[in-house]
Every structure is written in structure tokens, then in C-alpha cells.
Amino acid sequence: MRRNRRVKIVATLGPSSAEKETIQRLFDAGADVFRINMSHSSHERLTELVRIIRKVEADAGRPIGILVDLQGPKLRVGEFADNSARLKEGEAFHLDQNEEPGNSQRVYLPHPEIFEAVEPGHPLILDDGKLRLIVRETTPDIITTEVVVGGPLASRKGISLPATVLPFGAMTNKDRRDLEQAVNLGADWIGLSFVQRGDDVAEARKLSRGRVAIMTKVEKPAAIEQLDAIVELSDGLMVARGDLGVEMPLEQVPGLQKRITRACRSAGKPVVIATQMLESMITAPVPTRAEVSDVATAVFDGADAVMLSAESAAGEFPVEAVSTMDRIATEVEQDASYEALVRNQELEPEATGADAISAAARTIAETLNLAVIVCYTGSGSTGLRAARERPRQPIVALTPIAATGRRLAMAWGLHCVLTNDAEDLDEMVDKACRISYQEGFAQPGQRIIISAGVPLGTPGATNMLRVAFVGENETGNL
Question: Which of 28, 104, 162, 207 is the most exposed place for a label (fewest CB within 10 A)?
Fold first, then answer.
């Protein structure tokens, strides 16, 4: 199955999309990667969803990526005596370590680390941004705040501290268990929540031991301050605009989205734009015009993937949401201004053989008007470098490793095909021509360009380009 677009679609699974028939329809509608949110999934449910996705993959004959999103530490206030209390603007409100039910003057905060880290002047955001407090005084047991934006606050609502770097990592014990289960089941990507510093990513990488790719979710102001280190340590980034918009002024989020997108493209790592892309389709069969423009902007910016959250997980129209996103992305990529906008972000190749070869492949393909760029890739790095160039021609990535093909399902423009490594150069060319024809990318008489490493099968040794004609007899079996 060939997609008619370069940007990939990530669809979150949930109550509205838990059955095989629906997951199959989501894939047919355009989903390239499925996201499983461990905030709402047990290990048993995770196991079942992975089994279904792999069955859909086997039926389709095309690699499908699985992103398992870890919950991360959830900071919440304690219980109120009447299940909620109203905080009044201008009045004092205390957060303390007294476990008794709270009232309109105080509430239990079951996170002693916060008492150690918070300082006067730091803001506290409650209930996804609905209430806002400013810290006025701290002691080892009590945080005294002033209510800046008041309102009702229910028991166990979340608390965010955008200006406070908290003294704990991004992974809880639950996250470590979930990561191990996901790796054992063959997940391709792990979504890492609540990242504040590069060390948080390094911890996840140490635990995963290279068995899964790390997708760091950027949702904290501290992560923006360490963006370069986080990009370097991660395999990909997700712009988690929901939490980012709670922790930072909303008007800063669009600029940060562009900054993160460009940083990832420069590094040759996938970037996913997420949260509220087609939010109205949770309850409506069509999106708003503003949502269509939002998706289009992400595509014009050159993002690798766009993501659906509640739209496909809990909405009334999950398949329609994927189909709508597919149509928007396809139309944008056919727009006359698309290539110029993507080309305006063109990057100089880094001083490596793989980058030089990938840049040369794009230049040759465009100069000679070749049909397709074919790259042999074992680890996936050659495919990612080819995608970094954002060529006009489609890219076919050939790999003998299923895990590589599944991870590359997240990357811009890569059509992945699982096939055995070639034994010599002649077989390499024949295989590339045959697959290009059979997958619908080239016709007899057209030319293609092939990148590979010699000796064949050597990881990270991309050092060769070959232009080849697709002959009349390129219809044999793979």
C-alpha cells in the first residue's frame, strides 16, 4: 500500500478504536503509527493492542509503527472535605503536608519534592490552567500562595509548576514497568513524558538499552531551555502543545513549535506535532476551518508526523478524523507553494559521509528528474538522512530488519519495504528496480537512484550512489 503524502499520521487508540475492525479501518484511512497511552492502558490491554496491530500489519504487508506513551509523574493536590472548594482571587491559599481533607484555605499536597524546590514568585497552575496561584512564602511543610485566578478546584486535580525545576526524573516506577513491558512486546517508540533535562532522556535510554527509540515529549519550559541537549539524546521529539500551553503563555507555543520542528530537521530526527489538531471532531464529523489551517501549517513547516489524540481514541468519528487529516496533508503537499516553503528551510549537509551521499542523491535525482530515491538501510540512519533532505522525489527505504521499517514509519516521506539484503551490486540494483516498479514508484524506462553502503550490509557505511534504468522485466517476485 502506497500513501500519497510524505507527512505521517499518528493515531491514538482508546475506547473508540480498540477493536481490530476499527484499527484496520484507521490504517486504511491513513494511520502510519498507532499510539497507546499508558495513562489509560493496563499491561493486558497493551498486549492485546500490540497483537491486533501486528495482525493488521501482516495483512497489509507494510511496516506499522507502535508508540507507547509513558504516563510520567502526575502531580495532583489531595482531597477536599466536600470534594471541591472555591478559591477566591486575592486571598491566601496554603498547600501543606497535612493529609486531612482540604477547604477553601488549604489542601494537602502529597509531593514533598515540591516543597524543596519551589520559591517565592513561582507560579502554580491548577486544573489544566483554570486556576493560577503565585507563591508568596515557603517553609519545609507549607507553601503559602496568593490566588491570582480563582474558581472551583476539585479533589485530585493536577498541579503544574512551570518555573520550578523539580528534583526528580521523568520516569516513575510505573513508567519503568511499562517501558519494560512495551519493549518485550516489540514496541518501536517510547513516548517520554515530563522531561525537564537531558539527564531524563539519558535515564530512559539506559533502561531501554537500545531496544526501542525514544520520543521525548516537549511539554515543560525547562525542556525548552535544554532543547539542544534533549534533541541530541533523543531519537525524536513530540511537540506536546496541550501541556506546553498550560505551562507557558499560549502565544509562545506556535513559535516554539516552529523552533522545535527546525531543530529536529537539522538533526535528522523525526518531530511529531500533537494535541488538539482536529479537536472538534471528537463530537463532530467535520473539523473547524481553524483546525484545518493548524494541520496545514504543521505540514508546510515540514513536520515528520501529525498526531490525533482524543479524536481517534475517544471521539465519535475516529476513522473520519484520520481520513480528514490524510486529505488535508495530501492537499497541502500538492499546493504550489509547498515545495518552496520546505526548500526555504533547506539545510547544509553535516560533515559525514551519509549526509554528503544523501544530499548528492537529492541533487542528482532532481537534476536528472529521476523517478525515486532508493536507500538500503539496516539501522535506519540512512533513511533518516535521506528524509532530512526533503527531496522532491519519493523515497523507498529497503531494510531486512522489521524493527527498522517500523521505526521509520514515523519519518517524513519514507516508504519502507522489508526485503533481504542483496548479495552483490548487481542484485542490489535489480532488487531496487524491481521493488520500485512493484510498489508503484517507477515505470519501465524510467531511472532511479540507489544509495547503499559497500561492503553491503555494513551499518552506517553509506558511501555509494548508483543511477539505474528500470527495465521491462522488473515484475518478478521480491
Answer: 28
